[in-house]
Design brief:
Order of helices and strands: EEHHEHEHEHEEEEEHEHHHHEEHEHEEE
Structural class: alpha+beta
Number of helices: 12
Strand order of the largest sheet: 5-4-6-7-1-8-13-12-11
Bound molecules: 3-hydroxy-3-methylglutaryl-coenzyme A
Radius of gyration: 20 Å
CATH topology: Peroxisomal Thiolase, Chain A, domain 1
Helix content: 25-40%
Shape: globular
Number of strands: 17
Length: 389
């Protein structure tokens, strides 16, 4: 049976900071940010958009009368969840008006959470082909002002429905995984910003990529030339390029050129958003689907997921008849183009307005937030959300 990604939607809030502005403010050469890191803009997340609100804003775009009642599994992959006990998926189920008979929970393993959700959802739909799963990866990537990680911040959510006979991509039955106890990036319970050993994290990412892609190709009797494109978890877009360059010498010049072209298509959106942790890999998939001019139905895409700590996974997907969607692409471009450009000091103010862990009860002013779902604050230690519709 064909099981895979039927629909995909993305949300990022209405603000960004330009990477040239940030480079000037930090006395860095703009080319370090634009070329060395591979980022042109960075999403700035207002305090009225947390993981749950962004997840709901992404998911609402892909729900319709046809799939809504079929969703009986709701998985939120996140590493910036909003409660140490209750899952964001339960809030999501309620905000989206999904069935009370759906199983709803959250998964955490750094940026790998959404992939874990997809693999689980794929197995679920294989057993229950008349049902569907909603998998969302949503996060706010924060390192703090004037840290080395600052240029790799961002945030947003990617939502996908996993179904039998999918419109977009059939997922491979097999995948290759590799995990190890690595301190490359982590966030202790008392912190809202991640701690990171940046250069070490780059090395581990590359090692896990090479291990898992080689293992996948070998155990599935495939060649690199069988893949028309590769998509990567993109904490910053140069990271994917570093991964790709590790394996390019294994193919001839023409294939190298075509894989590099597809990679460019896969990083168009992430360049403008930055890291969104769990959703980043699927934002690069969405970018590939929307921006590649050469891909066709039946093409095989290699998919590399990486979550610090660390877990890597490589699997593949086969493009299906509905993988191109001009309306989805137009909406995506509109969302990115209509954002407000913040000055660096406005960005810093917004970053510092992020609620502290011990903030207690508070009410947020949501009148400037045009998104359908907003986070409105905390009352009696309970998070308050609002749907405008
Ligand atoms: P840094 O030390 O500020 O930067 O940290 P750098 O000195 O290494 O320079 C970066 C690149 O810019 C280098 O290229 C320079 O040569 C180049 P590379 O050697 O890497 O190819 N460069 C220039 N290029 C053109 N013109 C110039 C110029 N100057 C320099 N003028 C670092 C960079 C990414 C380490 C830092 O931003 C950081 O710590 N970021 C956060 C960690 C991260 O994103 N790690 C990625 C792998 S781990 C991962 O993906 C998981 C994660 O998403 C979390 C999760 O799983 O939950 C992070």
């Amino acid at each position: 049976m064909n099981v895979g990604i039927d629909k995909i939607g993305f949300f990022t809030p209405n603000y960004y900071v330009d990477m040239v502005d940030l480079a000037h403010a930090r006395n860095d050469d703009p080319n370090k940010y634009l070329i060395g890191i591979g980022q042109t803009e960075q999403a700035v997340i207002p305090n009225t958009q947390d993981t749950v609100a962004m997840a709901a804003n992404a998911a609402v775009q892909i729900l319709d009368d046809d799939n809504r009642d079929k969703i009986s599994l709701i998985i939120l992959g996140t590493e910036t969840g909003i409660d140490n006990s209750k899952s964001g998926a339960i809030y999501l189920q309620n905000l989206l008006g999904l069935s009370r008979h759906a199983r709803a929970f959250e998964i955490k393993q750094a940026c790998y959470g959404a992939t874990a959700g997809i693999q689980m959802a794929k197995d679920f739909v294989n057993l229950h082909p008349d049902q569907q799963a909603l998998v969302v990866g949503a996060d706010v990537a924060r390192y703090g002002v004037e840290t080395p990680g600052e240029v790799t911040q961002g945030g947003g959510a990617v939502a996908m429905t996993i179904a039998a006979n999918p419109e977009i991509m059939k997922l491979s039955k097999n995948s290759s995984v590799y995990s190890d106890d690595i301190m490359d990036f982590w966030r202790p319970m008392d912190r809202t910003e991640a701690l990171v050993d940046g250069h070490y994290s780059n090395d581990i990412y590359q090692q896990f990529f090479v291990k898992t892609i080689h293992d996948y190709l070998e155990t599935n009797d495939m060649q690199l030339t069988d893949l028309q494109a590769l998509v990567f978890h993109l904490p910053y877009t140069k990271m994917g390029l570093k991964g790709l360059r590790e394996i390019l010498p294994e193919v001839d010049e023409a294939k190298q050129k075509s894989l590099l072209n597809e990679f460019e298509a896969s990083r168009v959106y992430s360049k403008r958003v930055g890291n969104l942790y769990t959703g980043s890999l699927y934002l690069s998939l969405l970018s590939l689907l929307d921006n590649s001019t050469d891909l066709k139905v039946g093409d095989q895409i290699g998919i590399f997921s990486y979550g610090s700590g660390a877990q890597g996974e490589f699997y593949t997907g086969e493009l299906q008849a509905g993988f191109k969607n001009p309306i989805r692409k137009a909406n995506m471009e509109k969302m990115l183009d209509s954002r407000t450009r913040l000055s660096v000091s406005e960005y810093e103010t917004m970053l510092n307005q992020w609620p502290k862990l011990d903030a207690g009860d508070y009410t947020l002013d949501v009148k400037n937030d045009k998104a359908e779902f907003t986070f409105n604050g905390v009352s009696e230690s309970k998070r308050q959300y609002q749907s405008k519709n």
